[in-house]
């Protein structure tokens, strides 16, 4: 075996010199930088990191949006299913009721005498029940049940209602006065009595007047009604009116408008519709 000899130039001895780790001088900038195999472009790395965060945020938002959209769709389908079940259930009930009455009519029609007796009884019972309901309504809503206070200074309405009452009521509402509930019931009962005598569909004729004023949506605005009366005149036999559309659906003076139109209809039943 060969032995390894080391010749030292600093001394005449033969020995193996101690190995020293040779460290090359490194400048400060190079010392702070990453090793060559780890060096990266930092601005580009930050951009990539930011884009990754943006992509992750977009994915999370899409997941939540799709989840909520699926939930809304599920609720819509559930509501539609419930609606269909209710509708079909109502139709089935109507069909069962129809079949029941058909069977009842077939059973009764076998005997003519029973049919006539049943018809008379039903008519009598319906007329009696209607009369009883009418009397009960009159007793519960009679104007006499509400007394007028001595301090009341508003307009007074007495039967029969005439053109003068309409004008008095119109001026009172213009001044901001209130109508006593006693007189409100008087007008309502008179209006109900009149409407029961009128047909469901009325025919408007312009043969004599040659024109008719059609009032659209008032929406509870008394000022608009006053302007219409000022420009076109008050309702009369020579000045017919048709009050069409939404009259008292909103607004602070809907009751006043309804009472004025009701009194006009009572005074001019053939020229106010």
TrEMBL record:
Entry keyword annotation includes Lipoprotein: no
Domain Calcineurin-like phosphoesterase: 212-261
InterPro entries per the UniProt record, alphabetical: Calcineurin-like_PHP, Metallo-depent_PP-like, PPP_dom, PPP_phosphatase, Ser/Thr-sp_prot-phosphatase
Co-factor(s): Mn(2+)
Database matches in SUPFAM superfamilies: Metallo-dependent phosphatases
Molecular function as annotated in GO: metal ion binding; protein serine/threonine phosphatase activity
EC code(s) of this entry: 3.1.3.16
Domain of life: Eukaryota
Keywords of this entry: Hydrolase, Manganese, Metal-binding, Repeat
Top class in the EC scheme: hydrolase
Domain PPP stretches: 136-200
Protein's name according to its UniProt entry: protein-serine/threonine phosphatase
Record organism: Rotaria socialis
